[in-house]
Amino acid sequence: MNLFSGRATALDLAASARALSFQHSSEETVLAAEFHHIKTQFTPLLVPGLFGSGQHHWQTRWETAFGLPRLHQADWENPTPEEWDAALTQAIQQAEKPVLLIAHSLGAVLTMRWLAQHESSNVAGAFLVAPADIEHTTHPEASRINAFAPLSEAPSPVPVAMMASRNDQWLSNDRARLLAQRWHAEFTDAGLTGHVGSNDFLGLWSHGARTLISFVQRRLTTPAQ
């Protein structure tokens, strides 16, 4: 810092940038180790929503940083419940370990529909982020996913956690808490993070990663237990 002006110098700013970069890389390293441990016990499966998860989506960051597999759909823009359900069924049946579903938006809706309609012995648990509230949202893209209504009303047969934002166009905070109660899901407030998606630039979204890791450690039964 310049002692005369009190302003940060170029050296100060560079040092701060390096410290921040080190902090982020250290956090990513810690999270990567935790996800590696999870993968020794479960098959984590990213379940994207409408349009898939783009370049800036936390699911894409987790796929790259932590080596998590992603569910693929034939058509991300014009989804049908039957086709999306079939793709999820195939992925779960082919998994060698109990599946941990990590779902966003319509992917979370698909996950709860699937759990209500199928035998779930090969699913260890589900982590739901910002389920798209088809029944109440006025989002301009809602017509693309109306076929997935109504939302499941059945309690989940496996442990479930949910994170939702307080300023999500697709899901109000009150509805998020109601759905969590309906599905018997642990609820965590994601703050003011929009739809917690590609347009919200959350980076690695360490808050979500830490919440998921805690949920797995506390609630999921490993195959050996």
Please describe what this structure looks like:
By secondary structure, the chain is α/β, with parallel strands linked by helices. It has helices at 10-41, 58-66, 81-94, 106-117, 173-183, 206-219, and strands at 43-47, 99-104, 123-129, 160-164, 185-189. The protein has a 5-stranded parallel beta sheet, sandwiched between helices. Helix 4 (106-117) links the parallel strand 2 (99-104) and strand 3. Helix 3 (81-94) packs across helix 4. The protein is globular, with a radius of gyration of 19 Å.
Q: Helix segment count?
A: 6
In the predicted model, the low-confidence regions spanning at least 5 consecutive residues are 1-6
Strands, total number: 5
Taking all Cα atoms into account, the compactness measure Rg is 19 Å
Query: What is the strand content?
Result: 5-15%
What's the story with the biggest beta sheet? 5 strands, parallel
Element order: H for helix, E for strand? HEHHEHEEHEH
Structural class estimated from helices and strands: alpha/beta
Binned, the helix content reads 40-55%
Q: Give the terminus-to-terminus CA distance.
A: 56 Å
Shape summary:
globular
Mean pLDDT: 91
Strand order of the largest sheet: 1-2-3-4-5
